Amino acid sequence: MDAPVMVITGASDGIGAAVARAAVDAGWRVVVAARRRDLLDALAADLGGPSVAVPVTCDVTEWDEVQAMADEALTAFGRIDAVLANAGFGAKRGFLEESPEFWREMILTNVYGAAITLRACIPALRESRGHALLMGSISGRQVGTGSLYSSSKWAVTAMAEAARKDLHGTGVRVTLIAPGIVDTAFYDDPPGGDPLVPDDVARAVMFAVSQPPHVSINEVYMRPTSQEF
Ligand code: 8X3
Q1: What global pTM score does this model have?
Q2: Ligand 1 center to residue 139 CA distance, Å?
């Protein structure tokens, strides 16, 4: 069989880039998608070039671009075995913080973007009996004071279960990966000390996708040991 193929959004840095590295190390081919093309090109080259890593410029809030990302994956590699809907970002807490337009972009990216990423990849995943993964958060189960970000991640938690039920009987597995504090650009300075690092989350992703076909890991919640929330 050809090496399996994983499509990763928000892959230009942080968790997405770490998952791409872990997947290639484990013998996968990857499609790394994000808005920042320069970072994607450098990552794809570093991962071994077009035979193993294809960069795709994609704004996950635009259906045409998301659909084109799935099409590019199929053109390049002929199959999609896993997708990680990872693109997302946070906002200052407080319902008088940020701007309505910033909120709109966050909800569109974190919720709608994840949904249309699944939508675009599901036909290929049904063919491969593949795996859909969503990047949730500890904030998708706990409620942060004044956190619209938390509200968006509760939506992602629900989306994973909705998709799992929708795909029941197809052989496609669905996993919510829900980390706490990870040392990424999400934070100026990760609170609490001794945060998770992107590789920690990448191991959880690879754990989920490396199970035999009859094992469906549905949720992985993970925190730094030092995190209470
Ligand atoms: C952000 C991590 O712990 O603030 O997704 O929920 S946490």
Answers
A1: 0.97
A2: 5
